[in-house]
Amino acid sequence: MDGSPPHPAAHRDPGPGPGRRDLLRLGTLLAAGGLAAAVPAALARADTATGGGGEVTTTYRGHSPYGFDQWASVGFDVPDGVRRISVAAAFDPADGVLDLGMFGPTGFRGWSGGARREFTLSGSDATPGYVPGPIGAGRWSVALGPIVNDPAGMPWQISVTLHHGPPLPEVPYDVLPGAVPGRGPGWYRGDLHLHTVHSDGGRTTDQLVAAARAAGMHFIATSDHNTSSTGLSWRGNVPADLLVLNAEEVTTRHGHWLAVGLPQGEWVDWHYGPADAGVFDRHVRQVRGLGGLAVAAHPMTPAPGSFWEFGLDRVDALEIWNGPWTLDDAANIAVWHGMLCLGQRIAGLGNSDAHGPADAVGEPHNVVHAAGLSRPEILDALRRGRSYAAENTGVTVDFTAAAHGATAGPGEELPLALFEAVDVTAEVSGAPDAVITLHTEWGVMAVARTGGDGRGRLHWRGWGRGSLFARAEVRRLKPASTTLDQLVAVTNPIWFHAAGLAPYDAGQRTLVAAVRAADGSWGRHTALPGVQGTPAVAGVGASVAGLPDGTVLTLGLGTDGGLWLTTRKPEGAPGPWRRLSGPHGRDGGAFLDAAIAGFPDGSGEIVAVAADGTLHHQRVTAAGTASGRFRPVPGDASAGGRAGGRRGAVRAAVAALPDGSAQVVAYGTDGALHHRIRRTDGTWTGWTRLTGRAGAPAFSGQALAIAGLLDGSAQVLAVGLDGTVHHRVRRPDGTWTGFRPLPGAAAPAVAAGSVGIAGLPDGSAQVAAVGRDGTARHCTRRPDGSWTAWARIPGPDGRGAFRAGRIAVAPLPDGTLHLAAVATG
Questions:
Q1: In this protein, which residues make up the domain named PLL-like beta propeller (predicted)?
Q2: What are the average pLDDT values for consecutive 10-residue runs of the chain, which has 825 residues?
């Protein structure tokens, strides 16, 4: 007898199946990376005791200093005849955590992190997380990852027991099938981030398979922390109806990432950080070379070691939704969206990160369109973004874009000509009482609601290359643990340009200003100077307001969602930009849309849609400083009100009236256009849903603007979901005209992606619009209600065309018209 703990497999005939001896030989190539960063631990002393049955125990006592990012090892020699190694650790949890692992002469032999304080391994069995196999003579090391929160450090003790005896038989493992037979092209559901007892999970592999079947998954990936042992544990229990992908969650001290689709037994090292030049990229190449996928896991989680520090553009995909929806996931999506706006094609994934039996597998999961239910086909589809993430298997999203007789879905290209229309549709089921939103790099373009039956449809028409991509989200307007809403589904984008053709540079989307003189002539465009000396400021939105003394307030919405304000006094240059605090006074708050209007008393009013979809407002002084902070605009049930009486919106505009009141129009989360008045005493009227064209109960659209005139009327411009521009007047007595389309230059209606309107002292309304060809045009509504013809706004050099993505205009008392726009080159 060798004194080893008994194991039921100790006397089994190994039978057919892959052995581990050849596999472990490969570890010599990996050991150099795994132990290179682990310095020998500072040992106080080592005591050895001999027990019965051929056991020899050596106890090593050491001390680790305060710190998080440190690795150490305890080395020991193993003579011939040892058949089992057992390790036990002791430390005070009040001092920190001691992660554990093992390396042998042939390389990696296991990792349990902080999930266990003891483990054992032999040729026939091993504690989950550790690789069974021959106990070869030579130098072995217990790998340590001390996380010490006590400034005085953490003392610890490692006991290594060597069990001598006759050789133990090796136990073979089963090879996971690479495909589920008989499954061709279609949509498949799968969860790529799952843990078992081989790391810190509470399920065995058999229990995980049962949970995946119960959740309706077609494929899963077992992704335990820093170990390859999960893939070597399949013995007679390989499922035939579920595709199991072998994976590892590579858990560094600088971010976690999923190596998905690894061959069984393959191990990826984790002992490195961003300062180790080229190491991370080498391991990503290793995974890709094996046909796998590198995914940044929960990258914006602010916990130590979880927050991503390696650069998000160096992986194949981002886990933008990890487990139950939280504020961390909202940050993931915001960062991912910013990358998409730069033309970076990186897939977004959703996984449950389920650990214990109480964690639901597949909530959320990925719905993937693949050529078949096989490892290479699923991974290829995921890499290309041919997927969307859903909170459960009851949710489906049919997201498509159609143009020139072709149709594309998530992850596909639909290259457009400059003047070409594109129709984007999202059909949703299984999501009762939710909101569907369509996003491009210009923000939320359209919104629709689902009914109590869970079904809903959104349609939007865009023009030409006005957008790089489109993607859809479905949200439930009910609070979660840390958010005011809950994500139900999110799609990867459909791209409107070919991968081999560079999209227009997002850095060229600069904020510019121009002036139209009272005689109708246009001055040259001026790029607004950037922040901290940069030559220009990049943005995705712009608004402008004129004050009675000739001051111009310009509002810019940055590519990061920041809201910036600058002031230009008469005959002066624009002043420095000031970033406005976010909702509730937080610094660095992000917004989706914003507009500003100027009042007769010299103040301005800003309305802004926060990142969580709530509408806020704030007063600013003529000097461009905030007179308070953003406060929620009250909501009500008829206008898609949010929890706590807040108003939900996706786009908003504001107009100042001569009596000092303000009128606000907004596309609500119900997909309809609403109107509200803030009285001069600061109180609000209720929201009114505006009827649509030709008696339709509502008007839905993608862009809007409002202007107040001296007679107390207000004029509204709204771009419908079909891309055409409509006009409506609210008379001084509060009654409305109906919506009418604006006539085009050579068509009964004009199409546009952005509009601005301003009322001049002579009673006219000046209109600017970005047409479907991406160029800006101008026309005038005369006081008698007739319209002038459209004319191009000249380009920056005073000639040619002015290309823009967003546009706004504001009047001054001298009859000039001031324009603010996001130029696209």
A1: 548-795
A2: 33 42 37 61 79 88 94 95 97 96 95 96 96 95 96 97 92 94 97 98 97 98 97 93 98 97 96 93 96 97 92 96 95 91 92 96 98 98 98 98 96 86 95 94 88 95 80 93 91 89 62 90 83 64 93 88 88 83 70 93 92 87 76 65 60 95 92 93 93 89 94 95 92 95 76 92 93 88 94 85 90 93 82
In 10 A of CB 317, how many CB atoms? 26
DSSP 95-140: TEEEEEEEEETTEEEEEEETS-SEEEEESS-B-TTB------SEEE
The H or E element containing residue 471 is strand 469-476
Provide φ and ψ at 538, rounded to 5°: -85, 145
* Contact by Cβ (8 Å): 253, 69: yes
Q: What is the pLDDT at residue 234?
A: 96
CA distance 198 to 181: 28
* Neighbour tally for 304: CB within 10 Å: 12
Residues near 637 by beta carbon (within 8 Å), at least 6 away in sequence: none
In this structure, are strands 39-40 and 72-78 parallel, antiparallel, or unpaired?
parallel
**Burial letters 760-785, b for 16+ CB under 10 A, else e:** beeebbbbbbbbbbbbbbbbbbeeee
Local structure of 703: helix, strand or coil: strand
Joined together, the tokens standing for residue 371 give: 């050529």
Determine the pLDDT at residue 20.
Answer: 40
Single-letter amino acid code for the residue at 641: G
Q: Rounded distance, CA 645 to CA 637, Å? A: 9
What DSSP designation does 413 have?
B
Under 8 Å between Cβ of 58 and 159: yes
Residue type, 410: P
Residue 350 contacts residue 490 (beta carbons within 8 Å): yes
Chain centroid to CA 504: how far? 22
Percentages helix, strand, coil for the chain (3-state, rounded to 5) are 10, 45, 45
Domains and their CATH numbers in the chain: 21-164 (2.60.120.380), 184-393 (3.20.20.140), 394-503 (2.60.40), 514-823 (2.120.10.70)
The reported pLDDT for the residue numbered 773 is 78
Q: What is the DSSP letter of 648?
A: B
CA-angle at 14, arms to 13 and 19, nearest 5°: 165
The Cα–Cα gap between 651 and 608 comes to 8
Cα separation, 510 vs 462, in Å, equals 21
Query: What pLDDT is attached to residue 29?
Result: 34
DSSP state of 562: -
227: phi then psi, degrees, rounded to nearest 5: -140, 150
| Tokens coding 693 | 């064209």
Residue whose tokens read 């643990």: 481
Peptide bond into 167 cis (omega under 30): no
Phi/psi for 794 (5° steps) reads -65, 155
Written as one string, the DSSP assignment of 478-496 is S--SSSSSEEEEEEPPEES
Alpha-carbon distance of 118 to 157, in angstroms, equals 12
- Cβ pair 696, 738 in contact under 8 A: no
Looking at residue 661, what DSSP letter applies? -
Beta-sheet pairing, 604-610 with 138-148: unpaired
Q: Which residues are CB-neighbours of 181 under 8 A, at least 6 positions away? A: none
Tokens of residue 746, six digits: 């050579």
3-class secondary-structure state, position 335: helix
| Full DSSP string of 577-613 | -EEPP-GGG-TT--EEEEEEEE-TTS-EEEEEEETTS
pLDDT of residue 170: 86
| pTM (2 d.p.) | 0.85
Per-residue DSSP letter, 603: -
* Residue closest to 162 by CA, chosen among 104, 98, 61, 77: 77
Please say whether the beta carbons of 694 and 741 come within 8 A: no
Helices (H), 85-243: 205-214
